[in-house]
Amino acid sequence: MSFIVISEHHRCDSCRKIYKRKHTCFGRSHRRPKGLVLLNPGSKFDGQSHGVNSQRRQNLSGNRVKPQPDLESSDRIWPCEGSKTLANGTADYLTQRVLMTSRVDFDNFQLAPSNAAYLDLSQEWSCASAKQLLQLRARVTHRHSILMRLSGDIKGSENTIKSFLSSLNAGPTCSALSEDLAALYLSQAMNHIYNFNFHESHREVKKWTPNASGGQERLLWDLILCVGRIMRGEGRFEESKICFDTCLSTPGLRESKRLLVRSALADLYCELDYLQMGKQNFCLSQANAMVELEIKRLRLSSGQHRKGFRRLLLSLTEVRIRQGRHRDADLLTRELIIIYDNIREPDIVDRLGHVRALIAFARLAPSPEDALKRWKDVLLWNKFYNPLEEEVFTCGVVYLFLCITWYKLGDIDKSKQCLQNAVQVIERKQRQFLIPGIGTYLFHDVCDQVYSEIWRLGDSTAALHSRLQRCLVYPTATAPVAVNRTG
User: How many secondary structure helices (H) and strands (E) does the chain include?
Assistant: First the structure.
């Protein structure tokens, strides 16, 4: 609808209402007052003006009127189908169209002498507006990096943050963006965690120091959580537990964050259960209490669709396996696989959860034939989720399980081939602790099985076994002595 400016009182011939300043015209049914028609004879009765008069009014106003966007235009950006394309399209639209257009318009608006004379812009106001625009760019870059990481594009997330940081000039502007830059540093640290580059993760988290005056509780919580994840990735489970305990004890914690930390703590208790053999019951009972009540509450409140529910279910499955309650663990694992199969576009967290559920399902196989099919499914889905990446340490552990499975089925040649594949992957990759047990008790147990059966495979596998033993003794440079000893 368009607005017609009227300086006097007029009565609408259609609805008989009196309008003083503005008359909202809804079409041809509302006739315009005769005085205004005489002033603008080139206009139509529906309130739309055309021709020279429209251009004249734009020139007299002193402002350039932008045409309305063409919704059918081919160069107009719309979100695409699929969560991955939708996330990237939305972020690109905000970054490329909204921010860049706002920046150009803002600069042109400042440079125009007529605008400056009309509004009398002060230097303080323009600097404050530029700082707000920079803050907006930093926050959009942060959200963009998170969306790219969740979609699996870790490299793209890294480059997005690097590109924004390289465009900043050191000085008072950077100090004004302290909190926004801190969020970017933590996001970059998470990218390095997914790449198992923990040295760079430590460097990123050290770039920001909280103020002593306080008021940065949210960022401080994210910082402690990030440090806890770094410690867990390095195999430093006791130190990681301190970080997660601190996060969980924060008052007023949002439910999604609380479920995330509870799941992480339960996974740590499963690791500590293996490292602290004398306190088995204590660690597993703590892990069980950490997640079981939350799962029951979410079931009663129909919260099974939440990501936190899936994470808690994964942790409870691991606890049940460690407790020897394999029947309960099998039911939980089947429920998880059904849930993940129904997710149309899983993000990077759900992809990892799906692979983890498949590993648990393979560990619970009742026969070698079932185990063979399930372990192959683990490799298949890992390749599907990461088609362009090399096989990670987890794949090496899976090859060891396949080595034992093929041996039980009587195929010695395939058993040797799987052992060779396992040694090649494990030698090339450092030990990883992203999935509970992969770098500790699962790896150690399957190595013990290979060692007990290795003499039956012939002398040709002795060299492979010695190489595997070296990987077992020296898991990673950052792992604590307790983890090394368990090897």
Answer: 23, 4
Indicate whether 50 and 87 sit together in one domain: no
Same domain, 25 and 89: no
**469 lies in some domain:** yes
Neighbours of 382 (CB within 10 A): 22
d(Cα 90, Cα 433) in Å, to the nearest integer?
A: 34
Cα(90)–Cα(83) distance, integer angstroms:
10
Q: Exposed, middle or buried by CB within 10 Å (0-12, 13-18, 19+), for 234?
A: buried
Report the alpha-carbon distance of residue 131 to residue 117 in Å, rounded. Answer: 23
Report the Cα–Cα distance between both ends of the chain, in Å, rounded: 75
In three-state secondary structure terms, 11 is: strand
Domain that holds residue 102: 81-209
User: CA-CA distance, 19 to 10, in Å (whole number)?
Assistant: 5
Query: Looking at the structure, do residues 34 and 140 belong to the same domain, yes or no?
Result: no
Confidence of residue 78 (pLDDT cuts 50, 70, 90): very low
Beta pairing, strands 18-19 & 10-11 = antiparallel
Buried (b) or exposed (e) across 150-186, using 16+ Cβ within 10 A?
bbbbbebbbebbeebbeeeeeeeeeeebebbbbbbbb
User: Do 19 and 86 belong to one domain?
Assistant: no
The rounded distance, in Å, linking the Cα atoms of 331 and 334 is 5
- Assess if residue 187 is contained within a domain: yes
Query: Which phi-psi region, left, alpha or beta, contains residue 170 (left: φ > 0; alpha: ψ -120 to 50)?
Result: beta
The answer on 114 and 33 residing in a single domain is no
Same domain, 17 and 104: no
Give 410-443 pLDDT, tens digit per residue: 998 999 899 999 999 998 888 899 999 999 999 9
Fill in the DSSP letter of residue 22.
E
At 354-391, the pLDDT tens digits run 999 999 999 999 999 999 999 999 999 999 998 878 88
- Determine the Cα–Cα distance for residues 244 and 230; give it in Å rounded to an integer: 11
DSSP-derived secondary structure letter, 465: H
Per-residue pLDDT averaged across 457-461, rounded? 61
- What's the total number of domains in the chain? 3
Given a contact cutoff of 8 angstroms between Cβ atoms, the answer to whether 217 and 177 are in contact is no
Q: Is residue 26 part of a domain?
A: yes
Kindly state whether residue 133 falls inside one of the protein's structural domains. yes
Residues 145 and 183 in one domain: yes
Nearest partner of 434 among 184, 289, 237, judged by Cα: 237
Q: Among 393, 329, 337, 394, which residue's Cα sits nearest to residue 363?
A: 329
Number of other CB atoms surrounding residue 292 within 10 Å: 16
Q: What is the largest CA-CA distance in the chain?
A: 107
Of 120, 136, 436, the C-alpha closest to 272 is 436
Nearest to 476, CA basis, from 436, 435, 424, 440: 440
Round to whole Å and give the CA distance between 364 and 330.
7
Strand-pair partners of 25: 2
